[in-house]
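batch job 7 of whatever, protein = Potassium-transporting ATPase potassium-binding subunit
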Amino acid sequence: MIEFFLLLALALALGWPLGRYLAAVMRGAPMRGDRAFGWIERPLYRLLGVNPAQGMGWKTYALAFLLSNLVLGLITWVIFMVQAWLPLNPNDAPNMRWDLALHTMVSFLTNTNQQHYSGQAQLSYLSQMTGIVGLQVVTPMMGLALVVATLRGLFGGRRPQRELAAGGRTEIDLGNYWADVIRPSVRVMLPLCLAWSLVLTWQGVPATLDGGPVATPIDASAGMSEQKIPLGPVAPMVAAKQLGSNGGGWYGPNSAVPLENPTPLSNFLEVLAILVIPVAVAFMVGSFTGRRKFAALVVGTMLSMYLVSAGVAVWAEAHSAASHDIALMEGKEVRIGADASGVWAATTTAVNNGSVNMMLDSAAPLTGLVALSNMLINAVWGGVGCGLQQFIVYLLLSVFLAGLMTGRTPELFGRKIEAPEVKLLAVLVLLQPLVLLGLTAITLAFPSLTGNSNPSFHGISQVFYEFTSAFANNGSGFEGLGDATYWWNLTCSVVLALGRYPALILPMVIAAMLARKRVAPESPGTLQVETPTFALTLIAVVVILTLLQFMPVLVLGPIADHLALQAL
C-alpha cells in the first residue's frame, strides 16, 4: 500500500506543473521554447499546407480530425498487409491478413491498442516503429485537441464570433486542429517519451534493431533444439504505450514479460507513466479556463472514483478471502506480487491504457468487476483528452438533471442547456448499452462465434469485457478468448470506431451550440457546479447511468463468478 500512495503522490506532484505547461502549450501564446520547437513545427505546417493561426468552427475542426484519421489509417493498414516485403523485418514476420490488419489499424488509430495478434511474432520492426508507435504518439494528442476545442466552446470560443464567408451565419472559433495536435506532440509527448525510454533502457528494457540472440533450451524434452529470443526497439514503444494511454505491448503478454518490465522500479515507472498525462490534463483545466474551482471539481471527482476502484482491486487481489485461492496466482507474475498487480489493473482501466502486468483472465472476479466498471465509466481519469471529454458529458447530464430536480433552468457557465443539446447527449448515453449488450448477446447466442475458453459466468465476462474494452478505447482483455477471427476482428473494429468518434465529436458540437447562446448573469437561483455537493451529484449520475444499467450482465459475469469461487 505504501507503493500505491507513493505512486499517487508522485502522479499528483508531476501532474500539477505539467498541467500548467499543457495549458500554456494549448493556448498557443508565445513561450520560451518557441525557438527550440519551432524548427520542428514550422516544416510540418508547411508540409500540411495549413496556417496554425487560422481558427476553425466545429465542422471544419471535426472534418480535419476525421480526414487526418482516414489518411493515417489507410497508410497504416497497407503497411501491415505488406510488411513481409518491406525492410526492418529480421524476424521474418508475415503479411497480416486483411481483417486482422484492419482491426489492428482501427485499434491503434482510436488510441485503443486492442491486440488480436502477438507483436513479437506477427509485426516487423518497421510496422512496430511506424504504424504502431507513430499512432501511439499522435492519437492521444488528437484526443487532447478535441477536448481543448470543447473547453473553448464551453467558455465562448477562442475569440468572439466571426462571420462566415457564405450565408452570413456566425461560427465559434474553436482553435486550429493542426496546431492543437502538433504543438503537444512536439512539446509534450515526444520529450516525455524520450525521457521515459532512456530510463527504461537503463532498467534493462531492450532498445535495439538486432534480431535477437539464439539460445539452446536446457530441457531437451521440450522438442526445440534452439529458441530465438525476440528483441527490438522495445523501450521507446513501452514509453509511448504508457504515457499516451495506449497500452499495446511489443510482446503478446505485454508488461508481464520481463523484457518489457524487468524490475520493480520499471514496474513502478510504467504504472506512473499511465497516470502522468491524464492527471495533468485534469489539472490543465484550471489554467486553461481560468476557473480554479472547476479544475478542483474535475480533479476531486476523478481522484475520488480512482481511490475507490484501486482500493477494491488491491483488496480483492491481495487481502480478500478469495485471494488465498492458489488458482488466482495462475497468470500473475510472482516477482511483481498481487498488490502491484491490483494497482496496475485498476490504473490501466481507470485510464484508457489497457496495458497489463498480469493476465486479467487470472485476476480475482471482483478485480474484473473493477476493471469493467472503470471502463464503463470511462472518466475515472480516462485517456488523454477523451477521459475529460467523457467527464464533460457527465457534467452536462448532471447539470440538466439537477436543474430538473430543483426546478431551475439547466445552465452551465451561464448558458442554457436545452432540447438540441440534450438530444445529442441522449445519443451518447444510449449508444453504449445498445452496442455492448447487443453484440454480447449475439456473440453468446452463437457458440461458434464466441471462441471463449471458459464456461459459465467467466465466459460471459470474457465476451462482455472484450466489447467493453473496445468501446472504452482501453484495449485490455480477458486472455484466453479466441479473438483473431473474422467475427471478432470486424465487430471489434466497428465497436472501436463507435466508442471513439461520437464520444469526441458530439461534446465539441454541444459546446459550440452553447457558445452561440447569450450568457446569463449569475443570480441566487443559479446552479453552482463548483461545489462538493454537485460533485457528489455528478458521481451519483455516473453510477446510475453507467453501472446500474449494466447491472444484469455484471451480476451474471464477475459477481456470480465471485460467489461461485466463494462457494468452493
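notes: The beta strands are 162-163, 170-171, 214-215, 227-228, 411-412, 415-416.
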